[in-house]
Amino acid sequence: MARYLITYDNGHDETVEAKCIEPSGSQYIGWAEDGSACAYIPIANVLSVVRLADENAPKAVTD
Prior knowledge:
The strands form 2 sheets. Strands 2-1-6 form a 3-stranded antiparallel β-sheet, with no helix packed on it. The chain has a 3-stranded antiparallel β-sheet with strand order 3-4-5, with no helix packed on it. It has one domain. The termini are far apart. It has strands at residues 2-8, 13-18, 20-24, 27-31, 37-42, 46-51. By secondary structure, it is mainly beta. A hairpin with a 4-residue loop joins strand 1 (2-8) and strand 2 (13-18). It is 0% helix and 56% strand.
């Protein structure tokens, strides 16, 4: 699953693990690998949703 940084309008933030996050009506829904909802986030309170880099992803090698 991916990690997302959710930043709120009150200055707080949190990290959510989900396969994806999609808007649905008045909230964002985080979806788990098995298709179940794993997070509900009110859209009105959110400034940004940013997918974080995968720490296990291969890194580019440069000379």
